[in-house]
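Much of what follows relies on a compact textual record of a protein's fold. A record is reproduced here so that you can trace the correspondence yourselves:

. . .
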Amino acid sequence: MIAKMVVTSMKALDALTPVFPHPDKTDPPPDEETLENIYLAAFRAADHGLLRPWRFLIIRGESRAKLGELFLQASLEQDPDLPPEKQESIRQKPSRAPLILVTISCPQKTFPKFLF
């Protein structure tokens, strides 16, 4: 029984931690059905207070270029003397993936009391 549980756990771990061969991904991005499966897996996280302290943001298409501009702006605020080639690298980072799925967590220190 224990051996079977280990094998099942390893399959789940393999499914959750794929290895990609290189940093540049190409289009097409995951389809809507694949994204739905990603959401369903994420929603399985423990949420005992039914607070749903997470949000998901999908960045795709031209929004990736806008995100690149925000990355560059933040980088220039930290280092105004960034060389042009570094600036371009920062600007292009979000465009290396066909889709970016951002997970936002908003944990709370106190939980509402439920009457059962």
About this structure: Confidence is low (pLDDT under 50) at residues 1-7. The beta strands are 54-60, 99-105.
